Amino acid sequence: MHVKQVNIPLTDEAIADLRMGDHVALSGKLFTAGDAAHKKLVQYIGQGRQLPFSLVNQVFYYAVGTPPPPERIIGSAGPTTATRLDCYTPALLAQGLKGVVGKGYRSAEVAQAMRDHRAVYFGAVGGVAAILSQYVKHVRLAAFPELGAEAVYEYTVVDFPVVVINDIHGGDLHLEGRKVYAVTQD
Amino acid sequence: MRSVDVATITKVVARLCEEANFYLEQSVHSAFQRAYEEEISPLGRDVLTQILANAAVAAEKRLPICQDTGIVLVLVELGQEVHVSGGSLYAAINQGVRDAYQKCYLRKSVVNDPIERTNTKDNTPAVIHCRIVDGDKMRISLMPKSAGSENVSTVKVLNPADGWEGIKKFVLETIDQAGPNPCPPLIVGIGMGGTMEKAALLAKEALFRPVGQKNPTETIAHLEDELLDAINKLGIGPMGRGGRITALAVHIEVFPTHMSSLLVAVNLLCCAARYKTAEI
Ligand code: SF4
């Protein structure tokens, strides 16, 4: 299995090289964001306030982990459904966000917005949060401590395993993959 | 009358919450191993490899299988010869949930109200369904139910004339539209008949049946096979990345219904299929 090594912040060249279905090992910083953090970020943008951290060339991880047990930096932290965050995504792309890690469908509108902004949708496997947490080497609270578990955390990851779902060339693994394996039904 | 103390109930519920979140059910684990053998899609096999590896790490390190440790669903079958002593049954169950979610560092995902949405901070209340049955035993079945798979579950009022073909079409539409969102491979629970809430409850109960066990009525078991085959022909595959294993099992439960009704509910359970049962 060939795995492409990709560093965050993302570069235009790295993004252009990614194709639907590619295995990617992400290294660098991922910002966690769930529903509450998205709502706040988009409120900030609407009010013209400066964001607590720059989104330029960054990658969001749609995740709200479990509380860390003693002697661990995080609990289990796998991806949540991207579809719920579709309504917020275009505003964040406009701020320079270049990638998101999640699971589940993106709307056609968001998929188009991602292509327009040359941003990539990476899929992490849902339901394997215990192993995914092992790729997180360091954690820092990045914004919105008042949101508790839903605050934005900066995860420093090494070789975090994802697959490209939506690339900038129009590929969409969720739509294309099933066509390959579908069997005609009578 | 047999007396069961509420403290015992709290302890059992806490233990079930803990076990469900850390240890994948055996029949589900075996089903994933079989799925790995059968899956022909490389991306699908990669997902299944991760699911099996995750089960081992979760159990060994006592980490939750998935970060969505759910809203706790509890089905109680209460023998009519049982006397619950020392307090309230529902309070005892909620205390068990509270204890486990605190002690085991599980995520608290429950909000107080569908509109106001303030986190209750202890993952209570659980959703509890209690059924009075014969005997002097109490059976508690518990499932930390994920939003991902619950959010794409469906209930529909069909026309009796639609029959099995109509049901099949509705189930396939549900899974087709859900695609990657409920984290397939799925367990598909289907409730047919009764009234609207009865069909929904049957669909939920169906999820607790061990994978590999068919409905005891042969005709229904046959329909389960037929539907599983049709679902896996959709090509959605593990995590919706394309493949032949979209569901591990289809479990159908039926109940008599009104001559003019055909109610169908489809409740999906994600690949983090977590449930445990205990008898007191
Ligand atoms: S739906 Fe996916 S993310 Fe949610 S609990 Fe299930 S496996 Fe985890």
Structure write-up:
The complex is a heterodimer of chains A (186) and B (280). Chain A is 25% helix and 26% strand. Chain A has a single domain, classed as Fe-S hydro-lyase, tartrate dehydratase beta-type, catalytic domain (fumarase), CATH 3.20.130.10. With 186 residues, chain A is of the alpha/beta class. The mean pLDDT of chain A is 96. In chain A, strands 2-3-4-5-7 form a five-stranded mixed barrel. In chain A, strand 4, helix 4 and strand 5 form a beta-alpha-beta unit. With 280 residues, chain B is of the alpha/beta class. Chain B has two domains: 101 residues, no CATH class; 126 residues, no CATH class. Chain B is built from eight helices and ten strands. Chains A and B meet through helix 5, strand 7 and helix 6 of A and helix 3 of B. The structure holds iron/sulfur cluster. Iron/sulfur cluster sits at the interface of chains B and A.
Largest interface: A-B, 47 and 49 residues
Indicate the radius of gyration of chain A in whole angstroms. 16 Å
**Percent helix range of chain B:** 40-55%
Number of domains of chain B: 2
String of helices and strands of chain B: EHHHEEHEEHEHEHHEEE
Could you say which small molecules are bound to this protein?
A: iron/sulfur cluster
Largest sheet of chain A: 5 strands, mixed, barrel
CATH architecture of chain A: Alpha-Beta Barrel
Question: How are the strands ordered across the major sheet of chain B?
Answer: 4-2-5-10
